[in-house]
Amino acid sequence: MSRRLSNPSYLNSGKQSLRRRSNRYRGSDGFSHGSPALRRFVLMLGLGTALVALMGVLYFGYRLGTTTEFFALDKIEVLGNKRLSYGEVLDAGRVRLGQNSLALNLSRVEALLSKNPWVKNVSVRRDIPRKLIIQVEERDPAYWIRRGGSLYYADENGELITSVSPADFRSLPVLEADAEMRERLTELPDMIRALDNGAMPLSRDALAWVRLSGAGQAQMFLDNANLTLTFALEDWRSELRHVRLVAQDMRRRGEMNRVRRITASGGKVWVDRTH
Question: Hey, what CATH topology would domain 143-273 get?
Fold first, then answer.
């Protein structure tokens, strides 16, 4: 009668031998030598170390570049300024000779310059290693405008620039516009160009004042000709074409210097002359 062996000793010794051989290939941290997990861990550790080293090198290079005298500004070039002086531009941008070119925040310099009411557009760039270039586009004053008891400079579209002061005085035509007509101020440059064609002594420099009234009319007084021009705003291009034709006819007949008032409305033109 056969007897069944349970848990034979030779099998147990074999299993123990296999476990011992298997454990020889497993580290104390649970990673098997040469396993994908271990390789990923080593790779990430290496990348992290390299990244920290690179950041250290970049920081050291930045600190060196922004403190060395090699990048100290020895020339600041300002272009496009007409009204603002060289010194006013530098003061407004808070830049000066000797500053480190790399340490300058160019966006901040542009933002500071843009706060000046005379600056319309500005760009700032470096010319490595020691030069800074500031390109300015200034706003051009075309009129005086009275607002709230104060007198202001305004551009050709009637946009306020800054208040008129004794230290910054320039004689310009006075511009008046009723509240409901202010949105039409942007059309003024085209009106002036339409009239400045040689038929009439009209240019922006010849104007003494301009008025846009709530009645839908534009009035312009030409100081050099002692002439007042009035025309309807509803279809001002057509009205000014008629004015040009009449002015050309008056000039051909040598009577333009006697004209004191021209009024255009509804496609008709009236002329008042001295005797």
Answer: Rossmann fold (3.40.50)
